[in-house]
Amino acid sequence: MKEDTRKNIMETAVKLFAEKGFNDTSISKIAQGADVGKGTIYWHFDSKEDLFFTIIKEKGKTYFDKVVQLDRSDLSPEKVIFQYIKGRIEFIDQNYKLAEMLINNNDVINREFKELMEKKHRQSVAVLEKAIQKGIDNQIFREGRSNEIALMIINATNSAHNNFSCSLKGNTEERTKKIFDFIMYGLVGGKSNEK
């Protein structure tokens, strides 16, 4: 029951932070939206700032844990790239309001949190870089700098989203294949058999 209440508070806060911004969202408004008392919010969170950063940390941890799991898997380099793209699309689809919250409240995010996010970004780059280097070593991929290629994959995947909402048509699998095929084959042509 307590976990349901906490989740409800967080979901309400995400919606309000995304729509009204951090500064114009009070604990009272969150409590009213979540249909709980202010004391209930303070039972779960120390402050509005704690609620804001807890939301980002917990949602981000789920996403980044999946990226790190790709590194520990025995998937082929192509499948690691495909699953990275798919995971990113799924995360944005499932957390659109969170992405909007981040975009609309960039001024609230402190230096410590930015450093944490940069660390997580470097971990994502490292996972892709390792898969790419394995592909190069096994002559699956052409020669290149694996770090730069990893960054291009991340940027291409992120650029397929318009303000974090994927503007490509189709379901998750179809959109993943479109991005994957473009990364793997570019404008020359070809299609993947990835599933």
Do you know the CATH architecture of the largest domain? Orthogonal Bundle
Helix/strand class: mainly alpha
Number of spatially distinct domains:
2
- Rg of Cα set: 19 Å
Mean pLDDT: 88
Number of continuous helical runs? 9
Task: Give the SSE string.
Answer: HHHHHHHHEEH
In the CATH scheme, what's the topology name of the largest domain?
Tetracycline Repressor, domain 2
Distance between the termini: 38 Å
Into which percentage range does the β-strand content fall?
under 5%
Spatial sequence of strands, sheet with the most strands: 1-2
CATH class annotation of the largest domain:
Mainly Alpha
Low-confidence segments, given as residue ranges, are: none
Question: Percentage of helical residues?
Answer: over 70%
Shape: elongated
Oligomerization state of this entry?
single chain
Number of strands: 2
Query: CATH H level of the largest domain: which superfamily?
Result: Tetracycline Repressor, domain 2
List keywords for this structure.
195 residues, mainly alpha, Arc Repressor Mutant, subunit A, Tetracycline Repressor, domain 2, two-stranded antiparallel sheet, 9 helices, 2 strands, 72% helix
Report what the structure shows.
The protein is elongated, with a radius of gyration of 19 Å. The protein is mainly alpha-helical and 195 residues long. The chain has 2 domains: 1-45, Arc Repressor Mutant, subunit A (Orthogonal Bundle), CATH 1.10.10; 53-185, Orthogonal Bundle (Tetracycline Repressor, domain 2). It contains 9 helices and 2 strands, in the order ααααααααββα. It is 72% helix and 2% strand. It has a two-stranded antiparallel sheet. It has helices spanning 2-20, 27-34, 38-44, 48-72, 77-94, 96-104, 111-137, 146-159, 172-185, and strands at residues 161-162, 165-166.
